[in-house]
Every structure is written in structure tokens, then in C-alpha cells.
Design brief:
231 residues, alpha/beta, D-Maltodextrin-Binding Protein, domain 2, 6-stranded mixed beta sheet, 32% helix, 25% strand, globular, binds arginine
Length: 231
């Protein structure tokens, strides 16, 4: 953790892949990063007495940046799993998610994940979607940089389905009013999001967990949740 010089405020350097509405995204013509994760980490920083500085990095570059100490934490809709736990510490879970798929509206052949056999599927590189789709036999997988790239590929006919996190798929279709595509109900996995912290930084992990706990107790977490996921 770096301490800011001059101003006296401690700085929390945060990495996020700003491509994942409603968790982290940037509206055209707007400077500020927005979303559930952005509000949550700013609230956590405030609670801890830290100034929050957010850097936009590719999703597959986040853990390397944390290991290289270019950032102090990652908040990026990142699923807590054992593989990642070998390289980072995680906070307590802060959001329950899971994977679903999006197909073209006129798609008849694909209704279940098992129907993906022999089909082309786009996923964001470095994600649990990539990992899970690789387990399905006979799928041709295209790993792209962002979920937006995956959706474009689906619309252009380059793939038959996109596998991605359920709340992001739902937001894309309902809030963004995406045309010509639909999300399917079946859930491939249940996953919890956590904030990732450097493997040797137990102290920061504790501070983050304490702040998260506080925000859950004082209603601030619920407010942020309602802002992004309420009616
Ligand atoms: N939950 C998935 C994972 O951890 C996807 C996260 C992608 N996040 C993002 N900001 N693009 O692998």
C-alpha cells in the first residue's frame, strides 16, 4: 500500500477492467468510471480513510498487475476460486453471480449448455467463462478481449453463443436494450465475487473486510446495491 505524499492521504491503487456494466463501465462523454464495483470500492476507501485511484486494465492483466505491485487491489466482478487463490488473497464475497449464455433471438438449436457441442462460443479471455466453456466437449471457443467484443461477434454471426456473467448479460439485454439477442435462463455455475489483494498483504485484506462489514451494517452496501440492481 502506497502512502500519498504531500496531501497526507493514503492512496488505494485499484485495478479494474472497465468493460463490465453494471459493475464497471464508462459512458461515452463521461470521465468517471461508474458501476456497482466502482461505488463499492470508493465507499470502502472512504471508510478506510484512503483516497481511491482506479486504473483501467485488461481483465487478464489484473492479477499480473497485482503481483507486480502496480496496484493494491482488484475489483472487477472477479470470481473467487481456488486457482486464483494460489496467487492472490480475496476479501469476503460481496456479490453472488454465475454464468449464463446469450444467443441470437432466432436461435433454435441452442437452449441448454449441452447444446453447445459442435458450436462456436465467444468468451472474455482470462475469465471463468473461458475456463468453464473449455470443459464442454466439442466446443470451438473464441477468446476475445471484452464482453462487448463477444456480443459483436455473436451479432455478426462469427459465433453461435456468448457465455458470460448473468448480471452483465441481463443488463446488456434489459438496460441497454440490445436488439436481436436473448439471454437463456440456465445457469452453468454459481460464483461469488471478491476483491483481490496481494498475497502478502493480510493486513490490507483485514481492513477491506472490516470496511465491507461496516458498509453492510450501516446500510451503505444496500443503497449501492439498490442503485444498480433495484427496479
Ligand atoms: N466473473 C468472471 C471472472 O472472474 C468474469 C469477470 C470479468 N470482469 C470484467 N470486469 N470484465 O472470471
Amino acid at each position: 500500500t502506497s502512502s500519498g505524499s504531500g496531501s497526507g492521504a493514503k492512496v488505494l491503487k485499484v485495478g479494474s477492467s472497465i468493460d463490465f456494466a453494471p459493475f464497471e463501465f464508462q459512458d461515452e462523454g463521461q470521465k468517471e468510471y461508474q458501476g456497482f464495483d466502482m461505488d463499492l470500492i470508493r465507499a470502502i476507501g472512504k471508510e478506510m480513510g484512503y483516497e481511491v485511484e482506479i486504473q483501467n486494465l485488461g481483465f487478464d492483466g489484473l492479477i499480473p498487475a497485482l503481483q507486480g505491485k502496480n496496484i493494491d487491489v482488484i475489483i472487477s466482478g472477479m470470481t473467487i476460486n481456488d486457482e486464483r487463490k494460489q496467487n492472490v488473497l480475496f476479501s469476503d464475497p460481496y456479490y453472488q453471480s454465475g454464468l449464463t449464455m446469450v444467443v441470437r433471438s432466432d436461435e433454435q438449436r441452442i437452449q441448454k449448455f449441452q447444446d453447445l457441442k459442435g458450436k462456436k462460443v465467444a468468451v472474455q479471455i482470462g475469465t471463468t467463462s473461458a475456463e468453464e466453456v473449455k470443459k464442454i466437449e466439442g466446443v470451438e471457443i473464441k477468446e476475445l478481449n471484452t464482453p462487448a467484443d463477444c456480443f459483436m461477434e455473436l451479432k455478426a454471426g462469427g459465433v453461435d453463443a456468448v457465455v458470460n456473467d448473468r448480471p452483465v448479460n441481463d443488463y446488456y439485454i434489459t438496460k441497454n436494450g440490445a436488439q436481436g439477442v436473448k439471454a437463456l435462463d440456465e445457469r452453468l455455475t454459481a460464483e461469488d465475487y471478491g476483491i483481490a489483494i496481494g498475497k502478502d498483504n493480510k493486513e490490507l485484506q483485514q481492513k477491506i473486510n472490516d470496511a465491507l462489514q461496516k458498509l453492510k451494517e450501516n446500510g451503505e452496501y444496500d443503497k449501492i446495491f439498490a442503485k444498480w440492481f433495484g427496479e
